[in-house]
Amino acid sequence: MGVCRFCSEVIGDQDEICSNCGYNPKTDTLTVGFVRKEKKVGFVQKQGKVSSGVKSFMFWGTAIIVLSLGIKYQGKFGDVLWKAKNIISGNKVSKSAPALGKNNQNKITRFTDVRSYQAPADKSADKNIKIEGIFYDPLGQSYVVINGKLVCGKESFKDMVIKKINRDSVEVFQDGRESVLKVDP
Question: Which CATH topology does 123-182 take?
Fold first, then answer.
């Protein structure tokens, strides 16, 4: 076994000349008319391209990943695009109107399931209207317990309509006039 002095390739014992450049170590000469042998190359190197199956797999895999990330971050991505659109078009966005729910981040809101609540019926309930409790939700539906019956805003109770439920009072429309009812102690 020897090493070619021209190209530094290893020349095997069974080879008489270097397969890369045609050097003959026995005669210390280059072989005239030497044609280089092609080395065996891998399948992908020989073709020089990627198969259509691999391309299809990569395309659909990338599409699924991009789509799933788009769905996960659609709100944030939409906000960024909306702001960019406003900046490009020159529209000024007023920051005076806070986003819903962002101003109450430090408040703890506790909700009670009031759908199945029934206060004990009062025998004198037919004569007087008595506000027994208010379930107030500033971001959703509020409820009021009137004479043992659970009523939500914009509903009617006997001859009155509940207009608005506040934290500590209820605005009603009864007999052609508006009034404010407070919770009875």
Answer: SH3 type barrels. (2.30.30)
